[in-house]
Amino acid sequence: MVAIQSEDSSSIAASIGAALRLARQDRAWSTRELAARADVSQPFLSNVENGRTTPSVATLYRLAAALELSPAALMPSTDEGTVVVRAGTGARVPISDVPGTVTSQLLSGARDRAIEAFRYDLPSGFIEPEWFAHDGEDFVYVLDGSLIFMRGQDEEITLGVGDSLWHASHVRHRWRTDDTCSARVLLVTVNRPTSDEPSAE
């Protein structure tokens, strides 16, 4: 069966919220406890669980880490063997919780999948507000422009059009662009499977 993915941000927010609430309740944690473990505010967490807010990519990873789940475990599920995302579609997900931040386009990612794929359109002078560190592997491919990959405390790698990079993503990392060049980037993340996955829609 082939599915044409057409989920908007609101339906994704509702699905993430339901999975997050179930995972928290399975552990008998209060919203206050999970919020503290994930370094988010309790009101913000309540908004996420109720589907009123779509967590940023950074926050989704922090929540998943606090719950000892892969980020994909909190994503919407699908029973389809093949999913097509047409050009220009795919839910928009903010990179961070900073107001007005850059959004990413979700190309692939669902519960029970090991792979997530996002496309980013980054303006010149951009820098990710937060550092990332998570289990699994990342593959970065520059479709257009120039990207500066920042790894650890002082390592920077400049990537141009057609360049790619693989790295073990448990090391802290983030991206930036210089003041004169934007970037269009494809990110493919491979998550390590976990045995404790929520099943709520």
**CATH superfamily assignment of the largest domain?**
Jelly Rolls
Number of helices: 4
State the shape: globular
Overall number of domains? 2
Average residue pLDDT: 83
The CATH class of the largest domain turns out to be Mainly Beta
Query: How would you classify the helix and strand content by structural class?
Result: alpha+beta
Helix content: 10-25%
Radius of gyration: 17 Å
How would you write the strand order of the largest sheet?
3-4-5-11-6-9
Per the CATH scheme, the topology name of the largest domain is Jelly Rolls
Give the biggest beta sheet: 6 strands, antiparallel
Q: In what range is the share of β-strand residues? A: 25-35%
> Topology as H/E string?
EHHHHEEEEEEEEEE
Poorly predicted sequence stretches spanning 5 or more consecutive residues: 1-6, 194-201
What's the number of extended β-strand segments? 11
**CA(first)-CA(last) distance:** 20 Å
Please provide a written account of the structure.
This protein is of the alpha+beta class. It has 2 domains: 2-74, 434 Repressor (Amino-terminal Domain) (Orthogonal Bundle); 86-190, Jelly Rolls. Helix content is 22%, strand content 29%. The chain is built from 4 helices and 11 strands, in the order βααααββββββββββ. It has helices at residues 9-26, 31-38, 42-49, 57-66, and strands at residues 2-4, 82-84, 92-94, 103-108, 115-122, 137-145, 147-151, 155-159, 164-168, 173-176, 183-190. It has a 6-stranded antiparallel sheet with strand order 3-4-5-11-6-9, with no helix packed on it. Strand 7 and strand 8 form a beta hairpin. Helix 2 crosses helix 3. The model is unreliable at 1-6 and 194-201 (pLDDT under 50).
